[in-house]
Design a protein that fits this description.
mainly alpha; Hypothetical protein af1432; 64% helix
């Protein structure tokens, strides 16, 4: 009997890896960030980015990828918060729903990143910055990832000034977070995006 080509290749190159392998001691389970990705995708269904073409879920997923791969952070709270960071502000999702599914720490982080739309814009932005400053370092890390991602994707030239302002604000809010290596890395990355935005303005 002749083995298919793929089977023969595996037998020649990797079969030895299976010898002595033991079954995992614990069953494989779905992680919180996987559950968060599914939850956010459902919450943001039918929403689009400002280009009217890109499904909105692309943004929080990119923010999570920035946290992991650009900022080199594997903190589960930060990753889940990145995925969920716009759910309370931009969807019918409320704090209780996030807490019930993902725990109080993640719910608190998402709430910290949620603007109070009952306030007029000047007070709203000041309130937002104040809560971020008092919030967890993970929330501020996600804010840096948020401005990083938005700074790389400007659908209209008129938004450049606002992106520059938001990058500056995020950097100011994290000036005292230097004990967290991920935030040090994040600040450097955001500073590079800011420099690029200013050079093109």
């Amino acid at each position: 009997m002749h083995l298919p080509i793929a089977s023969r290749w595996f037998s020649q190159n990797h079969a030895g890896m299976l010898i002595g392998m033991k079954s995992p001691s614990a069953p494989v389970s779905v992680s919180r960030w996987q559950l968060a990705a599914s939850y956010a995708a459902r919450a943001h269904e039918h929403q689009y980015r400002k280009d009217k073409k890109t499904p909105y879920i692309a943004h929080p997923m990119r923010v999570a990828m920035v946290v992991m791969h650009v900022f080199k952070c594997d903190d589960e709270i930060a990753i889940c918060t990145a995925i969920l960071h716009d759910t309370i502000e931009d969807t019918p999702t409320d704090f209780d729903a996030i807490e019930k599914r993902f725990g109080i720490e993640i719910a608190d982080c998402v709430a910290t990143l949620t603007k109070n739309m009952l306030l007029r814009e000047p007070k709203r932005e000041a309130d937002y910055d104040k809560r971020l400053a008092k919030g967890s370092w993970q929330a501020r890390l996600v804010k840096l990832a948020d401005v990083y991602d938005n700074g790389l994707e400007i659908p209209r030239e008129s938004m450049r000034k606002k992106c520059i302002q938001r990058c500056n604000r995020a950097l100011e809010l994290t000036e005292n977070d230097l004990e967290h290596e991920a935030i040090v890395t994040a600040r450097s990355a955001v500073a590079q995006v800011l420099e690029s935005l200013q050079a093109d303005s």
